[in-house]
Amino acid sequence: MFLLLTELYEVKNMKRILMIATGGTIASESSAHGLHPALTSEDLLLSVPEVSDICEVDTIQLMNLDSTDITPADWLQMADTIEKNYHKYDSFVITHGTDTMAYTAAALSYLIQNSPKAIVLTGAQKSISLSNTDARSNLIDSFLYASDDLSHGVTIVFNGKVILGTRARKERTRSYNAFSSVDYPEVAVIRERKIIRFLQTDMNPSSKPVFYHFIDPSVLVITLIPGISGAAIRNLKNDYHALVIQSFGVGGLPGGGKGELACALNEWVKADKPVILTTQVPYEGGDLSTYQVGAEIKELYPVIEAHDMTLEAITAKLMWALTSTKKPQEIERLFSIPINHDIL
């Protein structure tokens, strides 16, 4: 009788999770023109019957898109769905294509802040319809992590790793080990249905989430190559509200403070539009003060340094901040405030 009561108690107190399906490879089927999302949220859930031993799950088919087609408007739709259902569920799992998953995770980190409930994104490198796939293990791990009392905020769960939403980057196109945590430790790993945590939670379980409802996608990202013309920056000034320049190494512009690119950058400054400088090197961030080609830019122009932020976090945070202000000084202030450990 004791064992029976214990089992009933555990089932009764299972976490209630809402799975939000958005498409991606995990839900794809073959067609004459290649893979495309076709499987439904119910199809995905039926493929992992083991989840019924972990939690109770309801599903929503929010969209069924290749993640290449995901837009900032879709981020808002995901955040809105979570907000409308926040009081009904203990946590959330979003199935998503891998190509832009890191962008979505970063965006949701800014649109849903201070969440004591877990918001987990996952997907797969191969469709769940295949026998040889990472989809089932990723889904099970995601529900397991979302069901744990210590889990909160926005994370990606993939290939047994738990990565903060502002620190994830897709680095491999085919391998199951597709995502890495950039310049920040993984929150945890999941091995044989066990969560091994590396970082202690810093969230008060009684805290209240803050939801944001707008985003400004008018952000231009330019990646420098040797010999690039300043016209690439200057000619698009009127079409965007902010500029992100991915420079070389720790940062700087060819020609320093007096070069063609600096003159083009100054056109944005004169227009009172924020300019963020970052590095195209994946790890260890930037520091404009290191070399003359960067120090001159820092001295002469009010640029914002992104330091160790990922490009995904930079663009998403900028789109979020631009809805509050367009002033470079205020954008710089917002950038300096850490959100979900996006900047150290």
What this model shows, in words?
It is a single chain. This protein has 344 residues and is of the alpha/beta class. The protein has two domains: 12-211, Rossmann fold; 219-335, Rossmann fold, CATH 3.40.50.40. The protein has helices spanning 2-12, 41-46, 72-85, 101-111, 135-146, 231-234, 260-270, 292-300, 311-321, 328-335; strands at 16-23, 28-29, 36-37, 56-65, 91-95, 112-113, 118-122, 153-158, 161-164, 168-170, 179-181, 188-191, 194-197, 210-211, 219-223, 242-247, 275-279, 304-305. Strand 16, helix 7 (260-270) and strand 17 (275-279) form a beta-alpha-beta unit. Mean pLDDT is 92; it is low at 1-12.
Biggest sheet layout: 8 strands, mixed
| Radius of gyration based on Cα positions | 22 Å
Specify the structural class. Answer: alpha/beta
**Strands of the biggest beta sheet: in what spatial order?**
4-1-5-7-8-9-12-13
